[in-house]
Fold:
Amino acid sequence: MILITGGAGFIGGNFVLDWLADSGAEGIVNLDKLTYAGNLATLESLKDDSRHIFVHGDIGDKELVAKLLAKHQPRAIVNFAAESHVDRSIHGPAEFITTNIVGTFNLLECAREYWNGLDESAKKAFRFHHVSTDEVYGSLSATDPAFTEANSYEPNSPYSASKAASDHLVRAWFHTYGFPVVTTNCSNNYGPYHFPEKLIPLVILNALNGKPLPIYGDGQQIRDWLYVGDHCSAIREVLAKGALGETYNIGGWNEKANIDVVKTICTILDELMPRADGKAYVEQITYVKDRPGHDRRYAIDASKVERELGWRPAETFDTGIRKTVRWYLDNPAWIEGVVSGSYRDWLSKQYN
Ligand code: NAD
Ligand code: DAU
Structure:
């Protein structure tokens, strides 16, 4: 057994599906609070799979986490659970502090107590894998080298500050208690089951619905895009072979300006689902007010994980984005389920 937190979200959900696609894989206990970002429809195909045990609950719930660990005796924990949306953290940072910092603290403490009670061989084999972000390193100029694991932490948003704090806790639990942790800091993910308030799914769905494609500021901010399946394979590698107490940067070697990402999506849609009026989707692009404190550029140097663990992404941006657009076109039922009341409330708060 392994215990996953946040496994009904975008990356956690993909991780659970990929993991259990292997018929010989160990079972998963999946602890998720089902916030607006958690969606059990993503895990629909597992409803009759006894290897997947879903538990609705909070990583901050000490009693529940302790009970789950005692009952299922996992050999590892992978912590995906977080509040993950930068814009939401600007409107309301409190939940980010509660889940990302206090929640991670609770998980670490419960896991440490459980680990202390294991026999020597189980203790040695145990891993706590913390899933984090490149945003903890702050913002790069156009000419700065990409982030390595040696970059200092300079988080700029309530979201990235809360993730940075959680990374520090994980690091301290290793140094102080010898608790067996690994941390991965990953760049922007995209792919199936992505909640449509983040740039790529938002643009695909707005384009298809004839709505504006909102570009913050001048659209020249750069992100380093990684297909979600590649992030999941990197986590599996690090979980299996990563050195204790180490951090690994995970990225796609795919730096793109936001405006170019949006134009690429428009071009693919022009081909796969042309507009009824024959016009191009780029006509829907609209420049809107910039994000406060918007980081200009992120770029990941993922050479350590390649050198030490042999991991490299399988998808290029061109192959991954095409798969992603195709997936959204082919899965209207999932999208319909996600476009709930709370999501509509968010859109009017953010863009009006
Ligand atoms: P997401 O917002 O799609 O999913 C988060 C999941 O965590 C949801 O299912 C939610 O219900 C659950 N959750 C939230 N609070 C919880 C709590 N207190 N207890 C239990 N479950 C809770 O996020 P995501 O994009 O899948 O990101 C997953 C992790 O990866 C996060 O830690 C994020 O910081 C990190 N990350 C994300 C990206 C990205 O591009 N999306 C990149 C790098 C790192
Ligand atoms: O870098 C990793 C991070 O990537 C993760 O840690 C976060 O959890 C994840 O949400 C993501 O953060 P970003 O803020 O980079 O992602 P988002 O999709 O919100 O925005 C991507 C870029 O697009 C960013 O520069 C802001 C811009 N943007 C976003 C939206 C939603 C727009 O221009 N218009 C928009 O409407």
Observations:
- The chain has a mean pLDDT of 97.
- Residues 221 and 296 are 5 Å apart (CA to CA).
- The pocket of nicotinamide-adenine-dinucleotide (ligand 1) is lined by residues 5-6, 8-12, 31-35, 37-38, 58-60, 80-84, 99, 103, 131, 133, 163, 186, 188-189, 195 (CB under 6 Å).
